[in-house]
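User: My collaborator and I are trying to settle a disagreement about how two of our proteins should look. Neither of us wants to argue from intuition anymore, so we agreed to look at predicted structures for both before our next call. Could you fold the first one, then the second, and keep them clearly separated?

Assistant: That sounds like a sensible way to settle it. I'll keep them separate. The first protein:
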Amino acid sequence: MRIPKEELILEIEKARKALNHSIESGETYESVYQNSVDLDHLIEEYILEGF
């Protein structure tokens, strides 16, 4: 299922903010790692869609 470009960009920004917040607030390694993986997945999807 293809996500519209604008929606995917918003999801990437949301994931980036979540990752930054988890780092800045000293969350556990597991939480930071999961946020990083989530962001990577969205960026990969963006690239694969050819945007």
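The second protein, kept apart from the first:
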Amino acid sequence: MDTEKTGSKKILVAPLNWGLGHATRCIPVINTLINNGFHPVLAGDGESLILLKKEFPRLKNYQLPSYNIQYSRKGKYLKYKLLMNLPRIQKIIKKERMEVEKIVEKEQISGIISDNRFGVYSNKAPSVYITHQVNVLSGLTSFFTSKFHQKIISKYQECWVPDFKGDNNLAGKLSQIGHTRINLKYIGPLSRFEDKNILVKERKYQIMVLLSGPEPQRTLLEEKLLTELKDFTKKVLFIRGVISDKERIFSDNKNIVIVNYLLQNDLQKTIAESEIIISRSGYSTVMDLSVMQAKAFFIPTPGQEEQKYLATYLEKKGIAPYSSQDEFSINDLEKITVYKGFKTKKTVREHSIPLTVFKY
């Protein structure tokens, strides 16, 4: 894109703080904006904003009101907990809209990209929504939650879907929809990782644990996996998925290296050096592991229908096995040998992020 036409326009980028996935998939979007002469301005809250500040320390950033979304300790109660919190979340969305208007005015924002933040849009600037969940699975209420989400999406000029259109996709029915008035743009999977060959002389780790997601379920899975791995005799890299000033922490087991987090380049390198990846089946993780052509074992977040669906979908395609959190055993990893793993390296870099919405 001609930078003279962009004129260093400022684009507000704001991911939802629900785990780190919404932030990580905004990384290639931010890089694309920079490479095309735009000036991204970051907005968000919690660990997702902290992560983007670490990845892009020179970019200006703003704090948005936090939704403070937490899971229940028992996944089956998640839907009810979210319903109980709905009035509070609606108030926060109104505050978020007010803050966004202030930022638009102060920074002279020329465009907005919201990754699943319902209140991040403005009538004063072209607004884009990023989601892979055009259809929102919620059990018996899936029809209503999908229609509700589609109504939210319709407020935006465009909706960028980080997947391929048609049957050969990563998100299954989550990202696919028939006739709709929503201006959908299928832009291909968004991964923070560069599509490049990494020279690996040897596999450094037999297992990499890659945790993420909201509390308390992140901690519950961490405790479960550390118990399962306590007698494991081969090398394990355990990434807690907690953004902290302290990157590495002490482990009682000499075979387990525990780190709080890794930034983009180090994480890509260590995934390439790992034989098996144990992780949640969140879509951003799925996109990252796809571009890395990794061998994965998924443990869906209890109560999150989307993750359970994705894990089942990928298992049926012969890509990766999965287990529920309660039933997981280290012996389940033996199932991986009969699965083909991810084979596609196609990412958004082979497609086009449609920045023309911000061009004029």
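Some points you might bring to the call about the second protein. The chain has a mean pLDDT of 89. The CA atoms of residues 299 and 323 lie 5 Å apart.
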